[in-house]
Amino acid sequence: MERINLAKTIQESAATFCQNRIGDKPPISVTVPASVTDIPWPDRKLQELVKLFLYETLLTNDPDAEVTVSLRRRSMLKGLGEFVGVQPSYWLHLRISGRGVRLCESFIDGFFGDVGYQCTEWVGVAESESRLGIFNDTDKPDIRIVFCLDIGRSVRKFDFLLPVREPVAVLCGLQAQALKAGF
Q1: Where are the beta strands (DSSP E) in 138-176?
Q2: Which residues contact 3 (CB under 8 A, 6 or more apart)?
Q3: Cα(126)–Cα(108) distance, integer angstroms
Q4: For residues 104 and 64, is the Cβ–Cβ distance under 8 A?
Q5: C-alpha–C-alpha distance, residues 28 and 67, integer Å
């Protein structure tokens, strides 16, 4: 199990983009709470996926349109764990959105595939511009990422929903600390 610092990964990707892009650059707004530091993940594929996806999003974005990146922890997403077939300790929700972002479903399939995640299913509703994709790690099929694509209206949103499983020893340690603190 690796420990991945997604906040650092996001910052590094944005910094690399700003150094490499010639000409005008889109404004970038990043919101990452201090409580979200590093997460347990089976390998470094997630870190590479986030880094490259954010870089590609910034690269294809209109330089006059802001890109917003936010990362937050969510304890429960009702019914999603059962639907996807995972029971995480919590979910991490990474959203990348902007008005000039130009990525589509077929690009996303190929992009995830290049990093080592295979799409098992895209789910959507007729006449809706929102789609939900479930991606499995090609080497470890029980590792899943949920990806939501919303290309409607003028703002496009890309949501990574990451099921995080804390090791039991860590959870027990946190519960013991909470009890000592009176929670």
Answers
A1: 144-150, 156-164
A2: 38, 39, 40, 41
A3: 20
A4: no
A5: 5
**What are the structure tokens assigned to 137, written together?**
């790690």
Distance CA 120, CA 143 (A): 12
Whose tokens are 């090791």? That residue is: 167
Which strand ranges, in their side-by-side order, compose the sheet holding 117-124? 28-31, 67-74, 90-98, 156-164, 144-150, 130-137, 117-124
Instruction: Output the pTM of the full model.
Output: 0.85
pLDDT digits (tens, 9 = 90+) for 108-142: 999 999 999 999 999 988 888 899 999 999 999 99
Q: Hey, how many other C-beta atoms are within 10 angstroms of the C-beta on 145? A: 21
Do the strands 28-31 and 67-74 form a parallel or antiparallel pair, or are they unpaired? parallel
Q: Record the tokens describing residue 148, joined without a space.
A: 């939501």
How far apart CA 140 and CA 150 sit, in angstroms, is: 27
* Residue 53: its H or E element: helix 45-60
